[in-house]
Predict the structure of Coenzyme F420 hydrogenase/dehydrogenase, beta subunit C-terminal domain.
Amino acid sequence: MKPEKVYACYNINKDLRLNSSSGAVFSSLAEYVLNKQGVVYGVAMSEDCYSAEFIAVTDEVGMARLRGSKYLQAKIGNTFKSVKRNLIAGRHVLFTGTGCQVNGLKNFLERDYDNLICVDVICHGAPSPALWKKYAEYQEKKNGGKLRDINFRCKDDGWVDFGMKEMLKNIPQSEEKKLYISRDKDPYMQMFLRDYCLRPSCYECAAKEERKSDLTIADFWGIKDVAPEMNDGLGTSLVLIRTKKGQEIFNYISCEMKLKEVTYEAGVKGNPAEYKSCIRPSQRDTFFDDMYTMSFEELEEKYAAPIKYSLKTRVKRKVKKIMKSMLRVIGGAESNLEYGLLFVFRV
Ligand SMILES: Cc1cc2nc3c(=O)[nH]c(=O)nc-3n(C[C@H](O)[C@H](O)[C@H](O)COP(=O)(O)OP(=O)(O)OC[C@H]3O[C@@H](n4cnc5c(N)ncnc54)[C@H](O)[C@@H]3O)c2cc1C
Ligand code: SF4
């Protein structure tokens, strides 16, 4: 389903970008609605970090909980009813979620509302919440603390080479422990990226055929070939405009963005999840049987062996890491300089 227009873009606010998964487009869309005393619906981690759930936010303080992708299926609860109540009361509402969640809301509402903006994320699948809980408990046991915060898309090593950042507390009383695990080494992320742990519907995703959102947002994977000047390593978004309402709100927030219009083909070349479902791996059913009988350690051994990179790739990554930390030491170099140097040295 082709959109009306397609953009590469990122928020000019660097802090917002660092705290977002891609280019922080969601934050600007949300701010637009909050400035109209509206309500923003999106996904936050529960307080115990064992699950993800939809919440309603009406101020900037609450926005911190919504920023960033949570890679597990979120609980909807009474969200659709609550959105309907807000709409009937005349409030502006921004609803964000996966394509199937946005389509689900639109079907529930059964009619259009001028005061509703729907944004979906391109999504190749939502992992099982039961697997996430098992992983969280495994991390708590291994590290001796309670999980208190999780960033699935930490950009410490860059936007493309992201990792998981986890904060645990009470080790012993009220001490904090911070973990950073690169996406190649984290067993949960590996099970997700290998598509073992997704919902059955994700392998035959109906939302790829019909998206009922006003805008779709995603990572602009492939930006380095399409618009290298928009690739500074801090995260670039792909935005697909699907309706007139979507274009109007995007025009409004565009003063906060660096952006470039691109063709649909260029935009989705590195992101097939926009138009096709992932292939159901042959191990998928056995994986789910094992998930209920095996310990997380056993699952890890069977399904998440760390990726083995060639010596060349490992050396390149090491050099990149050393150069980045050197640049930080010599005075917090600006990202453009940083990535300019990394580009010159081709690492
Ligand atoms: C399960 C999942 C799979 C994804 N797969 C892809 C992919 O294959 N390719 C791709 O390009 N992008 C994918 N994304 C989208 C991408 O990770 C970013 O969320 C998106 O680019 C928005 O980034 P941002 O910087 O604008 O805002 P952010 O601040 O990062 O925005 C986060 C937004 O995502 C929503 N969100 C967070 N977790 C969930 C969740 N569990 N369920 C529903 N909504 C959620 C929040 O409500 C908020 O609206 C996926 C996101 C999720 C949640
Ligand atoms: S892949 Fe499709 S069915 Fe699965 S969560 Fe994403 S939008 Fe929903």
